[in-house]
Amino acid sequence: MQGDSSRTYPKKNLKLKFFEDDSYKKKLKWKPKADWDKNHKFNLKANYIDATQARNLVNSELFAKATAITPFEHNSQKPLLKTQNLGQMEGFPVELYFNGSYYGLMTLNTKKDDKPYGLDSDNKATEGLTVESYIKWDDPDGNVEGAGKNYATILQDTTNPVLKDNFIKFLKFIKASTDEEFKSKLKTYVDVTSVINCMLWGTLAQMHDSSSKSMIWLTWNNGLDFYITLYDMDSTWNLYWNGSKLTEESAASFDSKNKLAWGNSNKLYSRIFDNFKPEIQKQYQKLRSTVWSNAQISSAFKHFINSIPEEAYEREQEKWPDIPSKNITDFAQIQQSIITRGNAMDEYMANLVLETDPLEEIKTRLTNLEHNGTTQK
Length: 377
Prior knowledge:
Blueprint: E1 14-17, E2 41-45, H1 55-68, E3 91-98, E4 101-109, H2 114-117, E5 127-131, E6 151-153, H3 161-176, H4 179-189, H5 192-204, E7 215-219, E8 227-230, H6 267-275, H7 277-288, H8 294-306, H9 310-319, H10 331-350, H11 352-356, H12 358-371
Antiparallel strand pairs: 1-2, 2-4, 3-4, 5-6, 5-7, 7-8
């Protein structure tokens, strides 16, 4: 079985490993699609909470498009450019049968391992760290292994000591640096725009866990610098984390106290929000005018949902009548969420720098007056 909370659902996610021999010694590496990397490990995702089966994969594709138009800030991150989907999972819908018995509608997905992230399992300087704790994610002790761990490694069973030391150094910097130090030195530790992309998508899509357990910290040089990306995007577009209801928070609930995905539960997000507002605003406007427009997002969902025959959806819901979201989500609901949320966030982001940093606006106006020779006025 695959997953965390999803293990408790009646319909299971499954890990697949393929072998050429009955003794499971010789790995069978193959491509389910021509543009995929060869691998012998894949996941069959039940997508039990999402009756459309679309959220996880469509959101991943949309996030990959943002990565494609966002320049990297560190040369070490270039291996990500050679991956099949720029650090995001890919997949396609299938119907699963066991010995002729129908099990349900699934998606066959790439697996969270070295291939999707451009990592090398034989090189311990390359690693992906996942966040395992909601509360102490920024623990400067960097507990990455053992009982009660706050972080976990994707590739290695034991964390490389050099990587662990560098990671702890980064966590201490996030927690203890002054605002001036944070603004001037953060880029030496992490690709800041990669974090901003995660913040923006998590807020736009109302993504559960985007500031904690869905974060992946990637490094190709023992943690000298990190690149942040997201994983597991089914609890989005107003769908509650277990699919039982649609979230009721107002799409317009953006303010300095309730920062949503930029909230105080994630100190890195919160400090970037406080210190990089112009960069956040600029990146948001760039993405919304290109790959994250209402039309682009809605079209991606429409295409995926239309790729699944209605008969397949009907077989799925007959097999699993207790799918929690079957009566509350469909393309129309997702489209409404995209447009309502997008328009509200557009309005908020347009005024982000002006509303939250009036001193910067005053400085700009004084500079303009000086240039016009009207300083006295």
